[in-house]
UniProtKB/TrEMBL annotation:
This is Transcriptional regulator, Crp/Fnr family. Residues 152-222 form the HTH crp-type domain. Pfam families: cNMP_binding, HTH_Crp_2. Keywords: DNA-binding, Transcription, Transcription regulation. SUPFAM superfamilies: cAMP-binding domain-like, Winged helix' DNA-binding domain. Signal peptide: none annotated. It comes from Acholeplasma laidlawii (strain PG-8A). One of its GO terms (cellular component) is cytosol. Residues 18-138 form the Cyclic nucleotide-binding domain. Coiled coil: none annotated. GO terms for molecular function: DNA binding; DNA-binding transcription factor activity. InterPro entries: cNMP-bd_dom, cNMP-bd_dom_sf, Env_Response_Regulators, HTH_CRP, RmlC-like_jellyroll, WH-like_DNA-bd_sf, WH_DNA-bd_sf.
Length: 231
């Protein structure tokens, strides 16, 4: 069950990109404008079509944003982690929410009202610039996701997504999937059954090795890239 309380420290602010550039005295002033709210796993932070006057910043936990197709099939738009924010459509464009936001773990969010965030951007213009920067990065990711789904081969979508998560500075480190296989299938525009089958196929080809449901290791990067170039 959701629970609201007043936030008495700076952790909502210092951990998020849109505020962590501010000085301590500035953060102290902003803390007075923030309330913190907890959600249990499976609870909705907000629903599609709702009008909101609040910016939500993820303090802890994980949230998925999705919409439902006409046949009630869930399509994941993106996953949110600590430091990410949602609710900007209602604040900046005065539009209704275009998706559902659901807690997929216990979640705590920090909430700032529309009038307060507007005042803050007047006093501290960098906050507005940071928000624009975050939204720009989000748009790039959405465009990538759309291009992956437009690609016919599911294998290519999977490999492009893994390359997004791959850390070239630590090539031997396994890739950590930030969501369940079921949610990943939705994110990539396929079914869980097809995803499992294609992952097994890529493993049989010797490109990857599935260490667990959450960890995948790229075994042969050169083979993976060659496979991608042929598609």
């Amino acid at each position: 069950m959701s629970h609201t309380h007043k936030d008495h420290d700076h952790t909502c602010l210092v951990t998020v990109p849109i505020f962590n550039h501010l000085e301590l005295d500035e953060l102290t002033k902003i803390t007075e404008l923030i309330k913190s709210k907890s959600f249990d796993k499976g609870e909705l932070i907000f629903s599609y079509g709702e009008k909101s006057d609040t910016l939500y910043i993820v303090r802890s936990g994980q949230i998925k944003m999705y919409y439902l197709s006409e046949n009630a099939k869930e399509h994941i738009l993106r996953m949110l982690f600590p430091g990410d924010f949602i609710g900007e459509l209602s604040i900046f464009l005065d539009e209704k929410n275009n998706a559902y936001a659901e807690a997929i773990t216990p979640v705590e969010v920090c909430m700032i009202k529309k009038e307060d965030i507007s005042k803050l951007m007047e006093i501290y213009p960098k906050i507005g610039l940071k928000i624009i920067g975050e939204l720009t990065q989000r748009l790039k990711k959405s465009e990538k996701q759309a291009s992956w789904i437009a690609t016919e081969q599911v294998e290519k979508r999977i490999l492009l997504y893994m390359l997004e998560l791959y850390d070239s500075n630590e090539p031997l480190k396994p890739i950590e999937l930030p969501m369940t296989k079921k949610d990943l299938a939705s994110f990539l525009g396929t079914t869980p059954e097809t995803l499992s089958r294609k992952l097994a196929y890529l493993e049989d080809l010797g490109m990857i090795h599935q260490l667990s449901n959450k960890q995948i290791k790229i075994v042969k990067m050169d083979l993976l890239l060659e496979f991608l170039n042929q598609m």
